Amino acid sequence: MAKVKGFRGIRFNTAKAGKIEQLVCPPYDIVSDEQRQSYIDRNENNIIRLELPVGGNMYENAAKLYEKMREDGVLIREEEPALYIYEESFECGGKNYSIKGVICAVKIEEFEKGVILPHEYTLSKAKEDRMELMKATNCNFSQVYSLYMDSEHKTTKKLDFLSIREADISLTDSEGVSHRLWIVRDKSQINSICADFDDRKLYIADGHHRYETALAYRNYCRENGLSKEGDSVDYQMMMLVDMEHTGLVVLPTHRIVRNLSVFNERTIGNVLKKCEIYFDVTRLENIDAVGATLTEEYKNGNISFAFYCGGTNCYLLRLKDRSIMKDILPNLSEASRELDVTVLHSLILEKIFGINKKNMEKQLNLVYTKKAEEAIESVRTGRSQCAFIMNPTRVTQIRDVAASGEKMPQKSTYFFPKLITGLVMNELS
Predict the structure, then answer these.
(1) Which of 147, 200, 258, 260 is the most buried (most CB within 10 A)?
(2) Residue 125: pLDDT band by 50, 70, 90 thresholds?
(3) Residue 415 pLDDT > 70
(4) Adjacent-strand bridge partners of 335
(5) Can you list the domains of the chain with their CATH numbers?
């Protein structure tokens, strides 16, 4: 099963680079141009310059900068392989959470081998960008986030025991999330944790693009005589977390529809009439009550989402009969057919709106946001035509879809909070 080991991590030398809270950043794919510049203004050594290069010759420039930071001692490498226990403490929905896992090197495998399993489709443009960056720098600047099953939670118990002491690195980011990192260098402790994964599969939670890029990069290196089997490019830096960890939070990703050729009151009426074939349609009088309504639907196990089309026009759509999905998608597993996003995409976005999978991949008429208020405001101000407010995907659904060898539509899950970038890196040499 999964082959896990320690690695000689690259970390910031804060004596030369500056304070660690000025050197880290969120994942590159949620950083705007303005935010990127603000991180650099805070400290010119911020990891964003390597993880998200811009401008002409940007990948070459990232490679030169990385080499210079190594030569200048701004970035230093562990003398021996280590594991890195990583904890995030945060507030969500008025509750306090803490999630802890281990950052390690994992041998990458093709999905069909059934050792490491995806749960979402990816976008080709993002993979092309990550591939060019890996070719130029030969380094993982950020980790893939994966889950594992451990009914006895023995690995988490080991991580808790090893992180009783004061953290080696500690910071609180601008969003109020606290990050702590403990470096484990003892060989016996490393071996004990790594051995836990000998009979486990891994389920990718976040970082599908990075993982698929890592596979492509490994193949590229082998095909061009740059590596052989067993070399460092066969391993990807990952954060591994117990699938039943009490701190695991999955948020929904809402759908925003825009740029349809025709969308007016008559269109809305036609959409609702067609929806009534498959859904119980209930008008929601108070747009502010959408969140509470959907939470109740989630608790009751219903397949439901809200349809907002401007003003006070908001409707709860609840699937009448789950068996209809078997008729529409007979080749999919029950786990995939009963996802809220699958129902929305197949019965409404594709069947009624005519937004096909290729259109979705290019985001011509469909965009995504994790903030319901942002989706609603986009419609209310006329920047978009309508929006679908979603419930989160359950972690068990993620596991079951992946175990079935299938994938969810893009942006089906949002693991919160995102893993911070810059605490540790993995040089593939």
Answers:
(1) 147
(2) low
(3) yes
(4) none
(5) 4-249+416-427 (no CATH), 253-391 (3.30.1760)
